[in-house]
Structure formats: structure tokens, C-alpha cells
Amino acid sequence: MSASSTTASDLDLDADRALKARHRAVWASGDYPTLAHDLIWSLGTVLVDAVGITPGQQVLDVAAGSGNVAIRAAEAGAVVIASDLTPELFDAGRRAAAERGVDIDWREADAEALPFPDAVFDVVLSCVGVMFAPHHQRSADELVRVMRHGGTLGLISWTPAGFIGQLFATMKPFSPPPPAGAQPPPLWGDEAHVRELIGTSVEVLDVERRTVSVTAFPRSSDFRHYFATHYGPTMAVYRSLADDTERTRELDRAIDDLAARFTNDGAMEWEYLLLTAARR
Questions:
Q1: For residue 93, which of 11, 65, 69, 165 sits 20 to 30 Å off, Cα-Cα?
Q2: Looking at residue 102, which CATH number applies to its domain?
Q3: pLDDT (tens digit, 9 = 90+) per residue, 148-183?
């Protein structure tokens, strides 16, 4: 195609592909499977229990990472597909599933364009996963589209006011500007935002704000060091400041101050929104 025949839609598609490539690279960096196992492994059980998975159900875990939820759903007897934009995370998930004696179908998939037919899953789940897809309405529409009528949706998302939401707010002034149209991930932890996204074709069954207790970081600097070497989004911000020593030190101080504010007697409480819904 010549430059003169390139259309606006072609340019939008190229920009979207580039954005997704960057997202994949961010989450493939570091060691998210270890982080998820070390810090939030319990959330998989929370979400599976909340939706009441039963044997034989067809379950889709969207933005599944290394299978924190998918493995628990399979242990409950479901037939599970774990999908993620970043297949580099699947090897750790496959090992964990094998250790626990369950079979999972791992699929590379964009949450904003899921490669599945309409209305095929009894349960659709995402645990601090789909919230990181940049275009929230696209992802929400896909979650609803692939869910059967009468099927169940279960979501866990970090809240804007909770620790991880505040971590992103703290890193924002140090980060490159987000691409046009990309929305902040912690908005998925706002009940009104999620209700608007999923629309009237889905009935919200229950909404709760809960916390997961994290005791792995006795000092604020311990948290910073861990996330700067394990968590892709934090690593990306530090990489963007690699040539600016003073700004790097400012970010160090800001993250340490945040961690200190959320630590009490050696424990941090990370708030999340747990939402369950059913397709009408």
C-alpha cells in the first residue's frame, strides 16, 4: 500500500498493534508469576468461591497471567480456558497446573478482541487482569459477548483509593504520557464505572470492597526493590528514568512514602473490588 492510500483506520490499527505490543512487553518483563504467587495467590480462591463454580462448567479466565484463578477453577471441576495477551506467562502456569494435577487450555488472546464465539462460556472471570487492557469499553463488551445468557461474570480489580491504585497514581508523574484513548486501570475498581461498562444486559449480583493482607515487606524499601525487579509496570517507569538520577531518586522516595503510609505493624492491606454479575 502506498503512503497516499493509507487510511485513518489503517493508522489506528497500526497504533493499536503497537500499543498491544508494548503492553505485552511490559508484562513479559520481570517475574509476574512469582509476584502473583508470593502476594495474591489467595485471590484465585476468593473469586472462584464468589461465582460458585461447579463441575463441568465452561470457564474463561481473561487476562489470566500464570493462572491464579484458572487453576482454582479447574480444581473445582470446570473446563477452563486461560487467555492472556502475554503468553510468556503461560510456562509458569503450566508448571503450576501440572503440580496440582489439573488440565487447562492456554490461549494467547487480546481481552479487547477475544477469539471465541458469542455466548459460549458459563462463567467469565478476571482477577486484576482485564483492568489493564487500555480500552475499557472494548474489554467489557467482550466479557459480556462470550458469556452465555444466564452465565456468570466475576471480577476482582484494584480500587483507585487502595494501595495498588495509589501506586499507579504515584508513578504517573514519572511516566511517559499514556497513549490517546487509554484509560487508567484502577477505574475498574470503581463500582459506578464497571456498572456503566457492562450495561443493562448484565445484572450485578454482588459488590464488595475487600482487602488482601500482604506481610512480605517489613520495610518500605523492601516493597520498592521487589516491585522494581518483579512488576512490569513499575519496571517500565524506572526504565524510562534510566538517564535521570535525580528523578529516579524522587520516584524512590515517593514509592517508599506510599508503602510506609499503607503499612501497619508490618502488614499492608491492598483494597480490591469484588463484583459478580449475571447475563440477563
A1: 165
A2: 3.40.50.150
A3: 999 999 999 999 999 999 999 999 999 999 888 899
Residue 240 maps to a domain: no
Residue 250, domain member (yes or no): no
- Alpha helix positions (H), the chain: 8-28, 32-39, 42-51, 68-75, 90-99, 136-145, 163-171, 191-198, 220-230, 232-240, 245-261
Q: Which three cell numbers stand for residue 176?
A: 511517559
Give me the pLDDT at residue 180, please. 84
| Statement: the pTM of the whole predicted model exceeds 0.85 | yes
Task: Output DSSP code: residue 128.
Answer: S
For residue 59, give every residue at least 6 positions away whose Cβ sits within 8 Å of its Cβ, in sequence order, or none: 53, 70, 73, 78, 79, 80, 81, 121, 122, 123, 124, 125
What are the Cα distances from residue 244, in Å, to 22, 248, 253? 22, 6, 15
Range of the domain at 80: 11-213+270-279
- Give the span between the Cα atoms of 280 and 267, in whole angstroms: 41
Within 13 Å and on the Cβ side, how many CA atoms surround 191? Answer: 12
**Cβ atoms of 67 and 97 closer than 8 Å:** yes
Please list the alpha-helical segments (H only) found in 119-162. 136-145
pLDDT at 7 over 80: no
Cα–Cα dist 54/73, whole Å: 9
Mean pLDDT throughout 132-156? 98
Domain count, the chain: 1
Q: Please indicate, yes or no, if residue 241 is contained in any of the structural domains.
A: no
Please give the full DSSP string across 223-269, using - where no structure is assigned. Answer: HHHHHHHH-HHHHHHHHHTTT-HHHHHHHHHHHHHHHHHTEETTEEE
251 domain residue, yes or no = no
C-alpha cell at 118: 458469542
Cα separation, 80 vs 74, in Å, equals 6
